User: Fold these one by one.
Assistant:
Number 1:
Amino acid sequence: KLEEIKAKKAAEEEKKKKENKYQNEGEGAIFKNKSAYTEGLYWLARTYIERGRYSTADYIIKKLENTSGLTDKVGNKLPAAKANMYLKSNEYASALVALEEAIEKEKGKKEKGRYAFIKAQIYERLGDDTKAGVEYERAKKFSPEYEMELNAQLNELKLAYRNGASSQKQVLKKLEKVLSDTKNEEFQDQIYFAIAQVKLDGGDVDGA
């Protein structure tokens, strides 16, 4: 009977060894390291985007989106990756949708502000100054960084003149006020550039 107990114990130990080997080397290992695997696929997709291989990148992103149990670490970054891909391939309508999804999923205010700022720039490029203004306002509210807030303010003022909401005189007066603010000393180049753009839009080439 003692021999039977020893044999049973040895069999159980052997079974445990096989299970551990399965977890470390077999299919279990893939599941165990799933988060590392999916993050690797995410960076592979980003690499393909940078190399202009958009269809391959899109395939990987869709594969990740359909992966069950995808971690937030990877899942929350996918909309921004898609937006980047659509921007590079000039698919602006799709980029706007992806950027809004990125804003909803992103936790950090800094990144939310950046995505809203990019949306504003897209709308401006598409000639929709009203929506661009809305997104610049969102960028200011989201971003904790003053430089982002300032850039959004400068672009809003330029848009106000361009769409007729304010006269050139009113906009230049506001820009001069921004320029004279001591906290904007390190950003004077950007403010002067905005003043030049407003003057150029009004046909004052020499002033610009």
Number 2:
Amino acid sequence: YYSRVGTAIESSKTVITVYDMIHEKFPEHFSINDKTSKVKEESIARADHVIAISESTKADLIEFFGTQPSKISVVYLGFGAPAKNRESLGSVKSNDRDFLLYVGGRGGYKNFSGFIEAVAQSEKLISEIDVVAFGGGAFTQVENAQFRVLGFKENQIRNVSGSDQLLSQYYSEAKAFIYPSLYEGFGIPPLEAMAHNCPVVSSNTSSMPEVIGDAAEYFSPTDVASISLALENVIYSNTRIADLQKLGKERIKKFTWERCAIETLKTYRTVLQDK
């Protein structure tokens, strides 16, 4: 991770990879005693070169730290789809109801709360669709209170955790995958969804359009009505679902770990030649 002092021998070149600028964009979500941003800035200034995992992250580096563009190379991450379970676990649906899938942490800039508000705002969605939040820990008292106030039925919103094989089954059975985050440095879950033929409905901010391309129905994450409309446009249109499935299959071909490794090695070699 980021270090206040150099850890390499003086004669060596150093390259640092930056995944996101969450501490800089959302300082209110961190303790005033959290020194990550300061140490990060010092580490980046000390490095000979920087790898950013998206053009969005590169732009944020330039904006917040004034890093010279010539010092930054963009190398996209790859992804590996969760292994599919060869033995059927049976359907993961509850009472045969369609569900929206959300994956990962839910707090702050992840905007899970805004997504839930959007579902509740739509009479069709709240009456016909369940929500599954995979991972991220059990729902808090605040979250459960929000669900009740918004009118969700008991167990209509469920938290599930488990193996990659179980996650794979949820991706495969979901009506759509929702990615309501206000900010991501890259964003692998939408690619995982595409690999399982699951249509993606996503925020239109930061790196999301850059990574997801045309393989998603987009919305403004700060506009609850926009989220509701995007969800309805996908869930209630077999044509749109088929289009997104087709586009997703093509999109995931752009992001492999082999390509990431080759481009990372190329960057290291370039840095070594600049003596």
Number 3:
Amino acid sequence: MRIDMKKYIFIIGLVFFCAIFSSCLKNEFGIVDLTMDDEEEVDVNYIPSLVHPGILHTMSDIERMREIVANQEEPGFSGYKKLESDPLSSYDYSIQGPFEELYRGNIGGVSIQGKYESDFNAAYQNAVMYAVTQDERYAKKSTEILIKYGETVKTILGDDTTLLPSIMGVKFIYAVELMRYLYPQGMTDESFNIVCNMLKTVFIPVLETFMSTPAYSNGNWGASVGMTYIAASVLFNDKEMYKKALEFYLNADDNGTIRNYIDGETGQCQESGRDQAHTQLGLACLSVTCEIAYKQGTDLYSVLDNRLMKGFEYTAKYNLGYDDVPYSVFQDVTGKYSNWDKISAQDRGEFRPIYEMVYNHYVNRKGLDMPYTQKVVEKNRPEGFYYEHFGFGTFLFNDKK
């Protein structure tokens, strides 16, 4: 058979072009093969542009929040009023610290945990209030807290050292990001460098030590570490950190990854047999990682056939009172937490303010159905505050349909 060389060359060229174009699409729109199965490792080769502000909210998000307030648009406006009325959102807030040494629990019978947690949340909430209202008094309060802690904190002590910079650090980092890009006259180059140096020398080494240590904890630890690490990568404009955060979320041998925390068939979570509070904490941290990445052009929400959505639906259903959710003994990666033989009723029905953000993504943005999460959202609107979470989701995560 005679080969038409012109057609042959055209076909070969077309195949080569498609391969290259496919690779470009892969890099541009997010690095994951969404058809992968549990045995496949994801090749992380995506480098973000790193948009600022870009930790949970970009300028378009902030403009959307301002629009909600200006138009008194419901249900978001009720969420805003809840944020506005919270004492930690006040520009008259009295700072409880700062402290040279941070620790959870108590040391020598003294506890400062509630004080710095209050300060970090006040910095975060005042930053949001400034972004929305543009009232400089909120910005001054937020930057005052951030700079004082940046100048003062020297170390983290005691037990649970990993949880302190991971759970609370993300709000601190979020506030720094907003103030840096929305209020540079207050978060000057000098102040920004002071605050970032504190984070890099005190907070980040704790996270990196955890990430390089063989798994030993329940999944909410790793999920919270990954959440704060990706937030820090955006703040520092560090693309290698960003890539490392994606690697951890997708491929790490830890209970706190999307693959290991949520069962792909049922949505059961690694801590479902422990209690519902820790389960919701783990899910919340995974979702924050997804939202930060999404704002930077990486779709982690859809990984493993929208596995995060399955975890939220499973947990929402059980906590709404349904007793027909499937349960099996969960084989965690450490082997230490694989003996819970039934789903835990502890903290059942105590809904954390974590559901609006994922509902906004999967339903408002993507047009998918989350019937049980929807029931939780409707039950708890407007979503309020809890110290471990960003909260106020009815207002903060409210894209137009």
